[in-house]
Amino acid sequence: MSLTEYLLFTMIAATQAGSPSPSTIFLVNNVLIYSPGRVILIYTGNLLAVAVLASCSLLGIGSLLLANPNILTLIKFAGAIYLLWLGLHILLIVKSNRVGCAPQVTGERIPVLWGRSFMAGISKPKKILFFSSLLPQFVENPQSLQVGNLFSLVLLFVLVKLLASSVYVLTAGKVAGRLAAPSVAIWSKRASGGVIIISGVVMGISAFE
Predict the structure, then answer these.
(1) Contact predicate 22/179, CB 8 Å
(2) For residue 100, is it left (φ>0), alpha (ψ between -120 and 50) or beta?
(3) Under DSSP, is residue 86 helix (H, G, I), strand (E, B) or coil?
(4) Contact by Cβ (8 Å): 64, 173
(5) Please, are residues 63 and 197 in contact by the beta-carbon 8 Å criterion?
(6) Which domain holds residue 195?
(7) What SS3 state is found at 140?
(8) pLDDT in tens, 75-100
(9) Could you give the CA distance from residue 160 to residue 46 in angstroms, rounded to a whole number?
(10) Number of domains in the chain
């Protein structure tokens, strides 16, 4: 894969991971109870869940393309359509003011919170659909498919998500009040939806090149 493709994937990953969400606010609020290191440790449960779901998507994509390499264009186009829908869905959520609320912070043992973090991540099957739509966009030749290259994208996504969450945790004292402001959530969702829509358009066009 080219550097441009890695940069495009990183931009999409950063948009997804960096946009304030209820889980982000929960992450920041936990710093009030636990140290930043422990909060990040708790969040690794969510990161592991993301990696598991992405790996499941990757295995499914690899098996499908090896069985029928000719459907790569169709998969890419369908994935681009889904990304367009996802971006529009985010914008519609913002328009209806349904941006969600942060879960309540409770002081519990670290293993319990880690387990909840993992279950919260693994119980989102839409993540499988997201990765199943995104990863094929970076496949050039299904006949020489290298799963390792796609798996590097999975690791890159997890790394970007870890860096974004670490920034939120380490700057919790400064961003906690701002994240609670509805206007911040609205504008961040608008930006996230816009980037995903643009990415979907670009990928839809490139699917037929």
Answers:
(1) no
(2) left
(3) helix
(4) no
(5) no
(6) 3-206
(7) coil
(8) 888 888 888 888 887 777 655 555 45
(9) 13
(10) 1
